[in-house]
Amino acid sequence: MTIKIKRLNEAAKLPTYMHGPESDAGMDLRSIEDVTIAPGQTYAVATGLAIELPPGFEAQVRPRSGLAFKHSITVCNAPGTIDPSYRGEIKVILHNLGQHAFVIQPGDRIAQMIVARYEAIEWQESDLGASNRGEAGFGSSGVK
User: Fold this and answer.
1) 4-117, superfamily in CATH?
2) Residue 68 DSSP code
3) What residues of the chain score a pLDDT lower than 50?
4) Which candidate, 78, 65, 83, 88, places its Cα nearest to that of 8?
């Protein structure tokens, strides 16, 4: 699949697969900013990129596991959704859950982006069919 992308800033780097598209689902997004996120702070980090997705596709912005595990940095609205009609700059809403300030420099990998197909649906109001789970909700599986 080919998707149109535009650099809004000369420092912007195109999303890349670290190990190639055969083994990685997500492409790394990189910062164009030099910013420090204090503990408990949320900040929208600029990537300097805009994309044009085809109809029926979205881009999902997800946390990087290494940042989450090593530094308690996560994508606040994970997964963030980029709709096919959006043409603005991709920004990554990062939140520092840790106890130390986290420094981001231009070129740092800050999130992953996955392009995925979605289905447009129509609702049909009706009685629902039976299932083996029924209405059992949170904690109903008995697994701790």
Assistant:
1) Deoxyuridine triphosphatase (dUTPase) (2.70.40.10)
2) H
3) none
4) 88
